Amino acid sequence: TRRVRTRDLIAAKSRGDRWPMLTSYDQYTASIFDQNGVPVLLVGDSAANNVFGHETTLPITVDELIPLVRAVVRATKTALIVADLPFGSYEEGPTQALRTAVRFMKEGGAHAVKLEGGRRVAAQVEALVGAGIPVMGHVGFTPQSEHTIGGYRVQGRDNQGAEVLADARAVAEAGAFAVVLEMVPGEVAKTITKELEIPTVGIGAGPDTDAQVLVWQDMAGLRTGRTPRFVKQYADLAGALSQATQQFAAEVRGGEFPSAEHTF
Ligand code: KIV
Ligand code: NA
User: Fold this and answer.
1) Which backbone phi and psi does 203 adopt, to 5 degrees?
2) Does domain 6-233 have CATH number 3.20.20.60?
3) Residue having the nearest C-alpha atom to atom 4 of ligand 1
4) 45 appears as a binding residue in the annotation
5) In the chain, where are the structural domains located?
6) Whole-structure pTM value
7) Quick one: residue 209, left, alpha or beta (phi over 0 = left, psi -120 to 50 = alpha)?
8) Which ligand is the nearest neighbour of the Cα of 43?
């Protein structure tokens, strides 16, 4: 087996094959996803929320994210590993974006990077692709801009679909190999998917994108409480882990653990 390449994903689109993508931030989940049919893993800046406990994705730094990328790369054999460029690490322009992306490729061992924005980051995308770094775009709702957007809001409603299409087209024309469409109406995502030759990766974008991505803790039910409408939970890891924790705690308190079989 060999690593998935960006051209495999473009070929999948021309065959009409859909593919799944998940976030991962550590070796065990990375290895499980890699061995169970997920060809692309994203070390997302959503680690800010899902690993480090921040309210938004804005605080995470390049120095915090690179070690997670390295762990995920080391734990996988076939998945293509995409690293997110954190807020503040590429907005200044192509030079800053290239300096940051090179760190993710060199120190993190990533196979591609992802950055948020459409027309406004086309120059950055072009510079990275020109330097040999595959880029995944991310348009529609872009969490790093949530203070401008005014919270988690669907983008491209009420005849604004053309704006999202223009952003997706801009990153595609700048050389991106795929583009995430986050929280856009299904019809808008369907149109963009038809218009572009590169694969679209939906999250809250309906059933007609070429790929689907979820944050793994959402997919596996590790996060509790209110989850966005676009999330489907395929397991109850929070329930399983709570149960295991209660039993371990009770058995320690009751003197049942460790028993003879666990004792040297
Ligand atoms: O950081 C992240 O988790 C993401 C995806 C949900 C697309 O950017
Ligand atoms: Na992200």
Assistant:
1) -145, 110
2) yes
3) 44
4) yes
5) 6-233, 236-264
6) 0.98
7) beta
8) 1
